Structures are given as C-alpha cells and as structure tokens.
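Example record

One chain of 96 residues, shown exactly as stored in the release files.
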Amino acid sequence: MPILLEIPAQKATENKTRIAFLVDCAQNGDIKLEATDNLLPRVFFLSIEDLFPWKSFFEKLKIAHDKAGRSQLWADIELFDFEGIVYNSALIPADF
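Predicted structure tokens for this chain:
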C-alpha cells in the first residue's frame, strides 16, 4: 500500500507541488519518489536539503501499520536539524 504524500513546491520538484509515494531511501539521505500526479518527471529525488513532509509521512505510516493489525508500532526517533551548513554546523532539535 503506497503512502501518498504532498511534496511541497521547491527546486527539486521544478517549483510544483507534487503528489508522490516514497520508493527508496539512500544511505546518504536522498529520497527517491514516484509521482502519481501525471506531471513529469514521474520519478524524482529529494536530497537532505530539500523539504519532505516527515510529519505527514509518519502519521500515514502509523495508520497503515494499524490497519495491518499485527504488532504495535514503536519507534524511538530523535529529529535534528543543522544550525547552518549541513554536516558543517551544530545539530539543533527539529522544529516539530
């Protein structure tokens, strides 16, 4: 069951809001998405500097997991942002 997300307009999406689902996450933090909105390119990538709707993703992931009805979903996740340049500045708590 793909989790559809609204990806905000930004350079990586050619300044268009996109509807897509997550296909893959790379070790370096890049995210591969496949769009369902009939815009091109159908497959696009976001880097760690790009905007990604993490809160919406985890909310929808929990709903999908609850529908599966197996074990409880549990996660101990800490989200951080960089104070300045990515990987060259201090970590600070994420804003949500």
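Notes: The chain is about 15% helix and 30% strand.
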